[in-house]
Amino acid sequence: MRFDSALGLESRKGPLAAAARFVVYGLMVVAFTGPLVGLLVSAFSKTLDPTSFTLWPDEFTLENFVQAGEKNVYLYLLNSFVVVGFGLLLQMLVSVFAAYALARKKFRGMTVVMLLMLATMMLPEEIIAIPLSLVLADLPVLHLNLIGTYAGMILPVGAWGFSILVMTEFMKEVPVELEEAARIDGAGELRIFATIIVPLCRPALGVIGVFGFTMIWDQYLLPLIVATESSMWTLPIALRSLRSDEEVGIGVLLAASLLALLPSIIAFLALQRQFMRGLTSGAVKG
Amino acid sequence: MTSTVTRAGATTAPPRRRAHRVRWRGPLVAWLFLAPALLLFLYFKFIPMLVGLWKSLFKVQTFLGDEWVGLDNYRTIITDDLFAAAIWHSVVLALGTTIGSLVLGLGLALLIEGPARYLWFVRTAAFLPVVTTMAAVAEVWRIMFHPADNGMLNVIIGWAGVDPQPWLASEHSSLWSIMLMSVWRGTPYDMMIFLAGLVGVDRTLYEAAAVDGASTWRRLRHITLPALRPVFWILFTLAAIRGLRVFVEVYVLTNGGPNNSSEVLMTLIYKLGFQKNELGVASAGGIVLFLATLALTVIVQLMRRRQAS
């Protein structure tokens, strides 16, 4: 007898056990992917009202995606990509820089900085939504108004405690000897950082990259507060306005929803190993 | 998560030889590297937090200037029936979603544990809801919740002989319908973390139990579940906090309706702040939500410690 699992289901032999397994796992897959498959199928079918949402393909059509163009869906998609592109770049740079200090340097006040980072993760961003809108409208000291600007959607996601901590944990593992050898050869701080530490952390970059992408892509309240003009809407917040259309029914909404879902699903499937690693290294979205 | 980080942070780094000529440069370099993160945190986390605390004591008026009202905003919240209902809905939704996802997640993790290749496929497929964009998924569910007889979910429960339900359209079922979707999205996440916990269970204990002739149920009860206890508490805390601050799901599915039956704290705060321009009261609401989150975290930690000792 083998002991690969708590219930030992796999070691049960016979057609009955196999059938039971098939049913249970089949139900699981259908339950969790059903709505997503339904969206995929319906977005390419003639969907007139909510009752024509279906798992079974009807008449294949691209009409919904054509109509989506007229409703500015591709502009919203572009906005989303601009925000996620610059946001992720900024977030990863900031994380790598901060992690370098936290993992490779010793200085007074480090514990306090660590605690502050953890505090930002415990603090749900929704709680500060209202005051954040006031701060964004008039940045203290700088007196800039970021409401109605892309920067207003990008800068607030630039620093994320989760990314910094994951990166820090990883950078601690890089052997000190490498760094010292370079230092003896006369390499400066930036050079050591850029040519030794960062390249060795490539796997961790994948982890914070995929988590950061889904985190920024999924932002809702922030663009809702910042994007006052509809021309700046990101796709997730635009969905509400696409709900009903007299000519094509819910087709545009379905096409837009699909476009909003695909990027994070693709990012997840492409970087699945890194994603699971981030998840199980005790990492948690927050 | 917190425990892993603090544990790793506590282990002292191996002693480093450092070039003596740059003794002062080390800390300076460190602060320079930290500066972007600290600046962004300061501007977009800490200052807003303080501003929120400060504004919660004022009647905020754009043109007339703010007027100090002390704790009046908090008094408004405590005495307002809408707020009381919203707090209650938030708690019900948070607890229901948390417990539902935990129980289902644990059950599915146990069913799906094992090294077989096809299980990897089932896991990946089941995990997809977690990475999907909330707003888009909620729109899909809103369509599936269509209350007519031929709405998708009504057709499905019809196969089981259940009468069509009004789902989001009724005061009596709106909150439960939102919960259903949240459990759908939360379960795979819990399942994955439980699976990671199951990998860590000592296999020799299973063997020992088999030698002693213990049943599967006893093995589960005395070996597997105790080993998962730390994972359980972490998931519980995180999910409950997430549940309390829920916004997008409710905003998209019902926007608090019908007749405020699914209004939660965040949707109410949002409406007060951005639609009625009651920024002072809305800020106070944010602080209340913050305190609730903090209290919850502390209570769970205390319970955990008591159970451990």
From TrEMBL, chain A:
Coiled-coil segments on the chain, per record: none
Species the sequence originates in: Nonomuraea wenchangensis
Family annotation (SUPFAM superfamilies): MetI-like
Annotated Gene Ontology cellular component terms: plasma membrane
InterPro entries per record: MetI-like, MetI-like_sf
Residues spanning the membrane: 22-44, 73-100, 112-137, 149-171, 192-217, 248-271
The keyword Membrane belongs to this UniProt entry's keyword annotation: yes
A Pfam cross-reference name: BPD_transp_1
Protein name, UniProt field: Multiple sugar transport system permease protein
Localisation per UniProt entry: Cell membrane
Keyword Glycosyltransferase on entry: no
All residue ranges annotated as the ABC transmembrane type-1 domain in the record: 77-271
Family of the protein in this entry: Belongs to the binding-protein-dependent transport system permease family.
Membrane topology recorded in Swiss-Prot or TrEMBL: Multi-pass membrane protein
A single GO BP: transmembrane transport
Keywords: Cell membrane, Membrane, Sugar transport, Transmembrane, Transmembrane helix, Transport
TrEMBL record, chain B:
Keyword Transmembrane helix: yes
Keywords of the record: Cell membrane, Membrane, Sugar transport, Transmembrane, Transmembrane helix, Transport
Keyword Thylakoid: no
UniProt cross-references to InterPro entries, sorted A to Z: ABC_transporter_permease (IPR051393), MetI-like (IPR000515), MetI-like_sf (IPR035906)
Domain of life: Bacteria
Transmembrane regions listed in the UniProt entry: 28-54, 86-112, 124-144, 189-206, 227-248, 281-303
Membrane topology field: Multi-pass membrane protein
GO BP: transmembrane transport
GO terms for cellular component: plasma membrane
The ABC transmembrane type-1 domain, residue ranges: 87-300
SUPFAM superfamilies: MetI-like
Pfam families: BPD_transp_1
Gene3D superfamilies reported for this sequence: MetI-like
Intracellular or extracellular location(s): Cell membrane
Family the UniProt entry places it in: Belongs to the binding-protein-dependent transport system permease family.
PANTHER family: ABC TRANSPORTER PERMEASE PROTEIN (PTHR30193), INNER MEMBRANE ABC TRANSPORTER PERMEASE PROTEIN YCJO (PTHR30193:SF37)
The protein, known as: Multiple sugar transport system permease protein
Annotated source species: Nonomuraea wenchangensis
Lineage, highest ranks first: Bacteria, Bacillati, Actinomycetota, Actinomycetes, Streptosporangiales
